[in-house]
Each structure stands twice: as structure tokens, then as C-alpha cells.
């Protein structure tokens, strides 16, 4: 009986020890997930919008985890991603150019945020995003290692500008997975 109990106790310690080693080999990476897209607004293509004074724009892009050098070595070992912030920067706005509305939508999630009245004076902003929305975007990233997002809105005059989205992320990966 003593021998059986010793084997059972040894097995519990051995299997529990494996999990402890596996958990000890967990890597946490604090990084920014960044993607930029160029928007070209052409008044000729938006003739109908001139009646109301705003020109529409829309552009779709992918944010891929394999393009992040911090994460790439652990890409197939990711256990969880948590997003904690989003910062959007728009460069190249002309003097007097105002984006009356800009929205960011993610496939599989829906609208992440909308901002109004963006000009060169306030071209970097941190939109209000709910924890639930961050969690949904993080789940898509964890499962597919990318998100497809669309930025769309209205601007008061033609031009070309670059929209950079930067998510603050904490990525947990198993180094021994």
C-alpha cells in the first residue's frame, strides 16, 4: 500500500511539475501593433459629395502580427493578446483640411471607434474604445494573427494623407509550446 501511495504521489508531483515548468517558460511581450495606410481623396470621383461639402474616403488594410519583430519569433506560440490602447495619427493634412468624421471598423468585430473634426492641429488622438471591443479585436488577432480593418469618413477638400493606427498590446506566448 505504501508503494502505491508513493507512486501516486510521485506521479502527481511529476505532472504538476511539468505544468510549473511550462508556466515558468511563459513570455510576455509589451509591444505596439502598428499599421499605416495612405488615403487619396479625389474630388472628381466624389462629385456627388460636393453638394454637401464633404468628400467621402474609404481604405482597407491588414495589420499582421508576423510584421512585428517582437512577436514574430513566438507567432505560433501565442496564448493570449490583450489590447490596452489605440492611438491614431494622421499626417499630411493640408492647411484648412478637416476630416469631419473618421471611423475604424475591423472585420469580425464591427466599429471600433469614430472621431469627428480632425485637422492638422489635432491629428493625433486616442479614441474612446470599450474594453469589450478591445477584447473582440484581440480575439481575432489571437485566432488569425491578423485583422482586416477599414478606415472611412468624410473630408472637406481633396488631398492625400496617411493614417497610422497603433494598438498598445501585451502578448503572452509559451516559449515551450
Summarize the structure.
By secondary structure, the chain is α+β, with helices and mostly antiparallel strands. The chain is built from two helices and eight strands, in the order αββββββαββ.
Question: Which key phrases capture this entry?
Answer:
177 residues, four-stranded antiparallel sheet, 2 helices
Secondary-structure blueprint:
Blueprint: H1 2-24, E1 26-41, E2 55-64, E3 78-91, E4 99-106, E5 110-118, E6 124-125, H2 131-144, E7 146-155, E8 159-174
Antiparallel strand pairs: 1-8, 2-7, 3-6, 3-8, 4-5, 4-7
Give the low-confidence spans: none
Q: Indicate the percent of residues in helices.
A: 10-25%
Number of strands: 8
Major sheet characteristics = 4 strands, antiparallel
DSSP strand content: over 45%
- Coarse shape: elongated
Mean pLDDT: 86
Cα-based radius of gyration, to the nearest Å: 23 Å
**Which strand order do you get reading across the main beta sheet?**
1-8-3-6
Structural class from helices and strands? Answer: alpha+beta
First-residue to last-residue Cα separation: 37 Å
From N to C, what is the helix and strand string? Answer: HEEEEEEHEE
Total helical elements: 2
Amino acid at each position: 500500500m505504501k508503494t502505491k501511495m508513493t507512486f501516486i504521489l510521485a506521479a502527481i508531483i511529476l505532472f504538476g511539475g511539468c505544468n510549473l515548468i511550462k508556466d515558468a517558460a511563459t513570455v510576455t511581450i509589451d509591444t505596439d501593433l502598428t499599421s499605416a495606410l495612405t488615403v487619396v481623396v479625389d474630388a472628381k470621383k466624389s462629385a456627388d459629395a460636393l453638394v454637401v461639402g464633404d468628400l467621402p474616403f474609404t481604405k482597407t488594410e491588414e495589420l499582421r502580427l508576423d510584421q512585428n519583430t517582437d512577436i514574430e519569433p513566438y507567432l505560433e506560440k501565442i496564448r493570449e493578446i490583450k489590447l490596452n490602447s489605440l492611438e491614431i495619427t494622421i499626417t499630411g493634412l493640408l492647411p484648412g483640411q478637416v476630416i469631419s468624421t473618421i471611423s475604424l471598423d475591423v472585420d469580425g468585430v464591427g466599429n471600433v471607434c469614430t472621431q469627428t473634426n480632425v485637422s492638422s492641429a489635432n491629428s493625433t488622438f486616442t479614441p474612446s474604445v470599450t474594453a469589450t471591443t478591445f477584447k473582440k479585436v484581440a480575439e481575432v488577432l489571437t485566432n488569425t494573427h491578423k485583422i482586416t480593418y477599414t478606415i472611412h469618413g468624410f473630408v472637406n477638400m481633396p488631398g492625400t494623407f496617411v493614417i497610422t493606427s497603433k494598438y498598445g498590446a501585451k502578448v503572452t506566448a509559451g516559449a515551450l509550446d
